[in-house]
Structures are given as structure tokens and as C-alpha cells.
């Protein structure tokens, strides 16, 4: 029996530019189950955030979904009108944005912004919404929540602001939570607290969680499954055990080798050479081949196909196809 909360199929998101349509997300498919944590990992610019914004219907004006479907609880979000999507967003699907200082409005109090998110989707009084806001702040571990409701974003620390964002995201008990680099601007101790809080709340409300990050350490701590993206495409996917213990794609191996291992004194960092290609850069074959030390001739000529390894473990790489055939 399927328990898929979100199912993205062959999603293609493009941007209208003076150079024509440029592809940011290229035929991406994945799913998130209820109560599951799925992490999308990759370098900045690989298409992680655009994937999330496509799901939410929050693409920039020049962004357009040109192919695929986004099924949420059996309903295709790409077929909904702007108003229908607005009603879903915040109520059934919520997002924690990367920078709380830019996501929160600096001229309104915390209380005003929390009440607004509650009143938008609930037919209750302003006073009741205010009391719900206080409960939410308390729930996410903010001390003196009643007093905080009257404060402005600049009066709170970075960790406090991020907790406010989490409270706003949870204000209508969503079934799917998207978190885009929720700990990037925070110090290490606060990062750990925020991740623990998100996981605890996810478990308490049995939500599906799609977390976007470039930090493999965060993935190891929080994920059930992991999706590795490169230049708009998924190159590897599997459970945390499958991907971390038996990585198959050279890019995945490069990401893992870029994370310090304090438990192994013989471990040496191996940064991935080169940089992510620009969205308008034409590369034949596998888009990772210019940076791949294992690249063969076929990698430079033809795009690889997705191959199932075992269970939920999948990889899109010619090297594995060659080894399987030989």
C-alpha cells in the first residue's frame, strides 16, 4: 500500500530569458512519504531551491513549469489556479525559508506576522489567533512568548528568528513541510537545536519533511532518504545507509570526501575540482563529466540513464552501466 504524500514526476522548470528558455530543473522525479524525512543535496545553483519553489508555486515571474506533475495527496498542484494554490500554501504545505531576517517583515511585530498566517487559513477571531501564536512560540522553545509577540524581528537573535519561522510554518498543522537550508546562517550549537526541533515537530505531527541542504553532515543527522542533485538533475538517490556506505556516483563520492572526518586521522579532504556549470552552459553527455576523474568517452557524448542498484538505491551514471555490462 502506497503512503506517498508528495510525488514529483518528470518535473521540468525553465526560465524565460533573452537567450530563450533555460532549464533549471530537468525531468526530476521523487517522492516523500508521510512521516518521512527526505533531503535534497547539492552545491548552490544545482536546482534544489527551484524544485521547492516549483512545488509551492512560488517561482519568479519568468519561471515556468514546462513538463511533469506534482501530486500532493492525489492532487496535481500544477493544475491548480493561483488562488487554489494560495489556499494550499501555508495550510497543507508550508516552507521554512533560508534567511529569516529577509523572510520576516521588519516593520511588523512577531505577533502580527504570526496572527496573519493563522487568520489567513482559519475562521477564528484575532484574539484567538493571538493566543495560538503564543502557544506556537512556546512550542518551538522561545522563552517569554507573550512578550516576544510584541517585539520586532531585529530584536531577536538569528536562532530565535528561525524558531519564529518554524512556528509560522506550523501554524496551520501542515502535512508537508519544506525547509530550505534552515540552519545556514546559524552557529553550530544553534544549528543542532533547530534540526532537533524540526525533527521532533515532524514526528509529533507525522508530517512529511523535504529538507534542502548542501551539508552532508546535516543529511547524516536527519535524513531517511537522500537525493543528490547536480546541474538540475538527480544523479543518485537512496536511503541514508545506501548512499553513505555505498555511494555510486562520482559526485556523491566527491561530496562525502569534502566533509572532514574527525574520527579517522588518516582521512584526507578531497575537494571536487572545477565548479558547477552555468544554467546556459551547453555540455554534451553527462553534465558532470568535465569535473569527473573517472569520465570515459561515452560520458562526454551521451547522457546516462538511471539504473536501479538495490532497494531504493538508484544512480544515473555511465560508469555503473559499463561495470554492470562488463
Describe the structure in your own words:
It contains 13 helices and 12 strands. A hairpin with a 2-residue loop joins strand 9 and strand 10 (233-239). Helix 4 packs across helix 5 and helix 5 crosses helix 7. The protein is α/β, with parallel strands linked by helices and 326 residues long. It folds into 2 domains: 4-92 and 176-325, Rossmann fold, CATH 3.40.50.300; 102-173, no CATH class. The strands form 2 sheets. It has an 8-stranded mixed beta sheet with strand order 6-7-8-3-9-10-12-11, with helices on both faces. The chain has helices at 48-56, 82-88, 100-103, 110-121, 126-139, 145-148, 158-169, 188-205, 216-222, 240-245, 250-257, 297-301, 318-325, and strands at 4-17, 20-33, 37-41, 63-72, 75-76, 93-96, 176-180, 208-213, 225-230, 233-239, 306-310, 313-316. The two termini are 37 Å apart. The radius of gyration is 21 Å and the shape is globular. The longest helix has 18 residues, at 188-205.
